[in-house]
Write a structure and sequence with these properties.
Blueprint (H helix, E strand, L loop, with lengths): L2 H11 L2 H4 L4 E6 L2 E7 L13 H20 L5 E10 L7 E11 L3 E9 L5 E11 L1
Antiparallel strand pairs: 1-2, 2-4, 3-6, 4-5, 5-6
Length: about 130
């Protein structure tokens, strides 16, 4: 699936509040996607940085899109595990979310997500496990 098809799938597949995040698919190849995540005022907590819940939602969404790019279409799946490490605070106007499928089997898939700040520095790193239904 190309970037345009993945972008069009966001409001069709995900909950409305995920579509409202404003994620933009920048590039796609099988098992790999890159998204632009705008850092909206609604995503920033009292400390002036983007909250972790936003990063985790973006990571989870990006991995589903990476799986779709590998499988060629959406297939039912559910998150089994999402482990997230926050390495530096995120602020500014946007972040880049890069998701990669590490392995996809018959019933489980594994992935890795990096979220980079505007300067290209790693700010959040996540790993995921999905059950393919």
């Amino acid at each position: 699936m190309n970037a345009d098809a993945l972008q069009a799938a966001i409001p069709e597949i995900f909950a409305p509040w995920i579509a409202q995040m404003g994620l933009e698919v920048q590039s796609s190849e099988p098992g790999l996607v890159s998204l632009r995540l705008p850092i909206k005022p609604d995503f920033v907590h009292v400390g002036g940085v983007m909250c972790g819940q936003t990063a985790m939602a973006a990571a989870d969404t990006a991995m589903v899109l990476a799986m779709m790019s590998q499988l060629g279409a959406f297939k039912p799946m559910t998150t089994v595990q999402l482990q997230t490490s926050f390495l530096r605070p995120l602020s500014g106007s946007h972040a880049t979310v890069q998701a990669r499928v590490l392995r996809s089997g018959k019933s489980l898939a594994f992935g890795s997500i990096d979220i980079l700040d505007e300067q290209g520095r790693l700010a959040v790193q996540a790993t995921t496990t999905y059950a393919l239904l």
